[in-house]
Amino acid sequence: MASRSTQILEAAARVIARRGVRGLRVEELAAEAGVSTALIYYHFKDRTGVLRQTLEFINDRAERYTTDRDPDAPPLTPREELDETLLLELQDTVEVRENSSAWGELRASAVFDEVLREDLARATLVWVQEVAALLGQVQPMATASALAAAAERLTALLEGLSMRWLSGGIRIGHARELMRGAIDAELAGLQRY
Questions:
Q1: CA dihedral of 52, 53, 59, 60, whole degrees rounded to 10
Q2: Cβ 15 vs Cβ 24: under 8 Å
Q3: pTM (two decimals)
Q4: Residue 179: pLDDT above 60?
Q5: Residue-by-residue DSSP string for 65-123
Q6: What region holds the HTH tetR-type domain (predicted)?
C-alpha cells in the first residue's frame, strides 16, 4: 500500500474508533489524514471502499502486534504462542485501543450494513481459524470441530472482554486474567477429544 493510502487508513481507524462508522465523514477523514477528499476517492472509490479497506487495515495491524517477535528471542512453545496471540489483544497501547474500538464499531455497524457484515464475517472466520490452528498445536489430538468451537468461544470472549475494558467496565488486568482462565478451560476441554 502506498504511504498516502496508509496514512488515510490510519486516520480512518482513528475516526471510526472515536466517532463510530456512522460518524465517519469523508471530509472529516480528509482533515484527519491531512489530504484532500479527492485523494480519498482516488484511493478508495467511495465510503464503502474506505470502510472495507479500514477493516483489512486493522486486521493486518492486529496480526502484526500479536505476532511480531524479536528474531533473536527464543521460540515460544505452542501454549506460549496461543497465550501471547490472544493476550496481546488486551494491552494498553494507543494502537490496540484504537484497533479494538474500531473493530467494535465496525461489528456494531455490520448489523445494518450487509456488505460490511460479509467482510466482517470473513475476517472473523480467518481469526477463528488462526486461533483454532494455535489450539491444535497445543492439543493435536482434538477434533477439528472441537478446535473450531473452542476458537469461536475464545475469540468471542476476547471481543467482549475488550469492549468491557475499553468502556471502563473492567480493568485490563482482570480482563487478561479472565482470558487466561478461559484458555485454560478450553484446553482442558479439548483433552477429552
A1: 160
A2: yes
A3: 0.90
A4: yes
A5: HHH---TTSPPPPHHHHHHHHHHTTS--SHHHHHHHHHHHHHHHHHTT-HHHHHHHHHH
A6: 2-62
- Smallest CA-to-CA distance from 134 within 182, 69, 187 is with 187
> What are the residues whose beta carbons fall under 8 Å from the beta carbon of 173, sequence distance 6 or more?
none
Residue 120 identity: L
pLDDT tens per residue across span 65-87: 998 888 899 999 999 999 999 99
Q: Is the pLDDT of residue 93 over 80?
A: yes
Confidence of residue 1 (pLDDT cuts 50, 70, 90): very low
CB 63 within 8 A of CB 40: no
Buried b (16+ CB within 10 A) or exposed e, 158-192: bbebbbebbeeebeeeebbebbeebbeebbeebee
Planar angle of CA 58, 27, 15, nearest 5 degrees: 30
Residue linked to cell 497501547: 93
CB 179 within 8 A of CB 158: yes
